[in-house]
Amino acid sequence: MNRGTTSPALPLPPAAGGRREGDPPGRRSWAAFDGPFGLESGTDLPDVRLAYETWGHLAPDGANAVLVLHALTGDSHAAGPAGPGHPSAGWWDALIGPGRALDTDRWFVVAPNVLGGCQGSTGPSSRRSDGTRWGAAFPRLTVRDQVAAEARLADCLGIGRWAAVIGGSMGGMRALEWAVSRPGRTGSLLVLAAPAASTAEQIAWGSMQIAAIRNDPGWQGGRYHDAPPGSGPHRGLGLARRIAHVTYRSEAELDTRFGRRAQPGELPARGGRYQVESYLDHHADKLVRRFDAGSYVVLTQAMNAHDVGRGRGGTARALRRAGMPALIAGIDSDRLYPPAQQAEAAALLPGADHLRVIESPYGHDGFLIETEQVGALVRELLPPPHRPGPPGTDRRPLPLECP
Ligand SMILES: CC(=O)SCCNC(=O)CCNC(=O)[C@H](O)C(C)(C)COP(=O)(O)OP(=O)(O)OC[C@H]1O[C@@H](n2cnc3c(N)ncnc32)[C@H](O)[C@@H]1OP(=O)(O)O
Ligand SMILES: N[C@@H](CCO)C(=O)O
After folding, report:
1. What SUPFAM superfamilies does UniProt report for this protein, alphabetically (predicted)?
2. Does residue 1 register a pLDDT over 70?
3. Does this model's pTM top 0.80?
């Protein structure tokens, strides 16, 4: 195991370095595990690197650690301002920080970039030991593989049991997999807008996005990473994002916001765009500039394969393994992961009483937008102590090296 600091936009430093006591909060680091790292498919990755960010300080007994897991196109920058390597502020910045729902004066928050991603963790755009990029040769991953890698990271950080594992969408799939596969390491659970198993329709949406990328001539069978800049499958990735983004928002929101209006200065009857088309173009353009198409395919395949009940006697039996206190939340206007699906999971999880419903006009993206309601759920899961101690007195340095 090695660790160091990096930014996804910068070349990795040699395998060395590490966090030191007193490091500023929001420190970005990475951990590399020597392989072979066995995958559910039966193949191996020769080595694995996970990028992660942390906020707060780990208590001497390691009991104040909270794992926060991002969605499909998210990354480890869950909190903090925009800056080098981070075009936007953290995606849950409103929730993580001193005095916020995930109070970093009390909790040590860890957010890894998912295995298969493209923001510092091993994925299709990473280089292999011979210097070539994985590209099409990158193996199929499952949510279980991603959680296994996160468990290796927890081992390395000396975190035997998370006080809570929290995630939305694809991050919620991983949170649920943590609870089912590692109940002894998952102290409590918050799953937002995520299913116990992807349905036919969810797989269908994902497969259309994968097809959009693969049908772009720039895909080149997945071997485009060393092609000249600009010749990759950008059009396909942009189309995938447009398809996905419609599923992330509600019909009512799109209608209220854009209706049939033309984009200012453009006339649809003369080849111009509707406002909603321009909006989708904008989101496609933004994603293409920050995300790798190969990672998009690998992560979407992992979401399509997601089924906590596979090989465990079915969903109901699998969920019964997870007895920790749990909150399962759905968004009332989510058409991608309808709340009724999560209500079934809530009914089956021993530690969850009933589905929590986030009210939002925004659809699936409500787990990113409705931070007040999400914060209330986090506070319910991790209530403030009756007598808080002075912040920052209980802390231990993270190990510089793992065995
Ligand atoms: C866990 C994770 O997923 S982490 C990664 C965070 N997620 C993403 O980045 C996914 C992409 N973004 C989103 O899904 C959303 O922007 C969210 C969820 C982050 C925030 O949602 P909202 O605040 O409702 O933003 P919304 O979807 O309205 O988009 C606003 C953008 O659309 C642009 N826009 C709005 N109308 C139009 C239009 N007619 N034409 C062109 N652009 C438009 C705005 O200018 C704004 O641009 P900017 O983001 O570059 O400043
Ligand atoms: N906007 C989110 C939706 C997927 O949950 C993302 O891009 O990751």
Report:
1. alpha/beta-Hydrolases
2. no
3. yes
